[in-house]
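Hi! If you just cloned this repository, the fastest way to understand the data is to look at a raw example. We've pasted two of them here, unedited. The first protein comes first, obviously.
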Amino acid sequence: MSAIIASDLDRTLIYSAAALGLAMPDAEAPRLLCVETYERKPLSFMTETAAGLLAELAGKTTFVPTTTRTREQYGRIHLPGPAPEFAICANGGHLLVRGESDPDWRRTVTERLAAHCAPLDEIRAHLVRTADRAWLLKERAAEDLFAYLVVERPLLPDTWVKDLAGWADERGWTVSLQGRKIYAVPKPLTKSAAVAEVARRTGASEILAAGDSLLDADLLLAADRGWRPGHGELADSGWQAPHVTALDERGVAAGEEIVRAFIRGAVPPGHAG
């Protein structure tokens, strides 16, 4: 039986310093490996144990990083183990094959969005028009596929995100609040669709997945088995599914436990190192 491992990255496998969630005394904290730098500063981390386990996993299975990050943002990450043959960026908008965006997949995505969603320009105009400069820090488009805002979270009114979600839903878009970022993403732009394409190309008979946010819900639902950490949008909302394990661990400890779960689920007994 062949399985593919499709995992979200940020706050699932890798963690910023602010998201590490180190609850233990300093002397008992795990050793950390930096897996991403930004502007010459360390940005994202895994425990050294998780890094070793991921290298083992990636060497024995088809490991598919599955992220909402743009290709440029994904390119800053240096995960342990062999370079993945497949990676999914822009929430499914780009399927990377040996590091290059697959043009056939990109064409398929473009056609789906044109058929089922309001155009990106309409969404961005609404975001800019309705956001308050008191809490809006940045407005960006990612890969000409979706939009996001960076906000001062303490100043953001709860009702604003709910109102935006209702407005976007009528236009074929979904809204997700993750930390300081508010994402507006076309409904057909999903991680699960891109992962299904990888499964088709590889002939995989099983999909194992992990993620922490509402943008990962479709991925987890489409998987045969899944895991979510004890933090994040899914945990905060009480989201669950029969085949998805809700872990107690939070922060970088959850990332380590997710890799352990992947190994137990995907590496045949006797093959684990």
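Ok, and the second one:
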Amino acid sequence: MTARELDAAGITAPALRAAYAACRDLNARHGRTYFLAARLLPVERRCAVHALYGFARWADDIVDGLDRRETPAERDRLLGLLEEDLAAGLRGGGAAHPVVRAVADTADRYGIDPRLFTDFLASMRADLTVTDYPTYQDLHRYMHGSAAVIGLQMLPVLGTVTDRAEAEPYAARLGVAFQLTNFLRDVGEDLDRGRVYLPGDLLAAHGVDRPLLQWSRRTGRDDARIRAALVAAAGLTRGVYRDAQPGIAMLEPRVRPCIRTAFVLYGGILDAIAEDGYAVLHRRSAVPRRRRAAVAAAGLARVLAARVPVAARGGSASGPPHHRSAARRGRGAAR
């Protein structure tokens, strides 16, 4: 976390600054698309977004880290400890882990509903025992906790020009669209973990089942049935993006470039998958660096354009929209 970002957010306590910095470092290592888009946010809001995504990344690593050797029971115990640490942090009693300390502080500053974290951890725990989803409805219930709540957590940080309740369904859908994109990109890696996140009914409609996916992964050979199922999954995902898109206009103008950039970059992963011939069982598709840079440059231009009306009105370009209780607790947050 840069000193400028921390200062702009009003985060002054050294231990808390270090906690937010740990979240930023975690995201910089693991999320190229997300991290690039986050740099387009107003400077005073980046810390909170890094905290939310850092916590999600930390929990996900407990469940899915390929370099971990814990049994499912041990991972469940670690999730339980994380849950206890978060509960302590949300109660204001302080959290032991730096990432948890930062996300608890963010939840307090922006008044984020604690139930969203409960739902998220419930989906993380499901990953320890659930290995497939028979229908899209089943998968969607899982994604409420694993993806939709991320969009809902972000909304108080981003701010809206409409009533927040009106924007919430769109924020949830965008979180789902991003996760469906990840599921499609990571079919092979998830299969190695013993999981299939593509809906069973969608696969069955094209004559695909787990053994066929495992055969393709093991042999490196393609199958027309698998390709057809993956094309259908991509079509389903694009539909969720379309449903989510109107919500971008409901956000505060200064944050729209960030979310629009993430929208385009993640959608670009679907394009990359198609360009790779839907070979997701054999390699991981990625948006080319030059294309990512072009999208980011366009986002930066929109950021600069969004600042002009604020300056023309003589208003301030800083200050998070919902620092609900930071001043009350003496954290020196910018109002």
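That's it. A detail worth noticing about the second one: The first helix runs from residue 3 to 8.
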